[in-house]
Amino acid sequence: xxxxxxxxxxxxxxxxxxxxxxxxxxxxxxxxxxxxxxxxxxxxxxxxxxxxxxxxxxxxxxxxxxxxxxxxxxxxxxxxxxxxxxxxxxxxxxxxxxxxxxxxxxxxxxxxxxxxxxxxxxxxxxxxxxxxxxxxxxxxxxxxxxxxxxxxx
Length: 153
Known about the structure:
By secondary structure, this protein is an all-alpha fold. Helices cover 75% and strands 3% of the residues. The chain has helices spanning 10-55, 61-68, 71-81, 87-90, 100-120, 128-152, and strands spanning 2-3, 6-7. The chain has a two-stranded antiparallel sheet with strand order 1-2.
């Protein structure tokens, strides 16, 4: 077919038209999965912090939790820096077990930063049992949340 002096291949144009929506649909699914993973991780970190502060039975856990909410965006940034939201797009099949090394290291670094933050903020100092409960809680709850998100997504 010739249009304005240019040769256009109709089959090539139809093939390109069919591929574009598939890319957009896949990109939309990837964005949705990343957002669901982030939401699940945020809920898991908040729940882990709440459990760690309640298990310690310190006075005014609500006050400490209010100051400790800083841990949620901190952990989200660390998870993003460790690539926990970008790996699903790059692989054909992906499981939560593949995240464990990065999740463990991000949790250790996040726990140390939270401990330093708590030491110099009105949150009051966190003891070893609280940090340990926070770390174990983050790892366990994030694994459960990520497994659930990937199962339903």
